[in-house]
Write a structure and sequence with these properties.
Shape: flat
Number of strands: 6
Low-confidence stretches: 25-32
Length: 162
Amino acid sequence: MLKTALAQLTILSIILSNLASMISTKKSGKNNSSIMIEIKSISRGNPQDETAVPKFYAHAISTGKVDFERLAYLVSNQCTVRVPDCLAVLRALEMNMIDELEQGKIVQFGELGNFQIGVRSEGEVLTEEVSGNSVTSAHLNFRPAKRLRKMLKTLEFKLKAS
């Protein structure tokens, strides 16, 4: 049993290391090409002043999605762990992250960052009036780690041709 747990921890460590490597920046020396994010221009009105002229803002364009199976495949190609083992560890990680978040814990996810449950609530006049009934919704907060924040600062953007 201990041997299985150690093997799973080793696989998880490899997966986390490889995930962090996949998001590494051009400064890491592993990726010398510039990271280019495509953007488009979108018009947005001012909800506080409906008579105001709408302004145009940059909006990032997704280039697609990567699912667990693809991540497991990518990780398995960078180490000696097979795809099914990577998938099993990723699924276990997913379930454990959800369980820990449900317990109110901050989940530190390696060099990616921290996840934490946050809430929105109605404002109450007195502190004694604040209760679980004051909560209007829950959401997930993500705070990127240093390496990810650094990557975000080095991104370059190009406007997608219409």
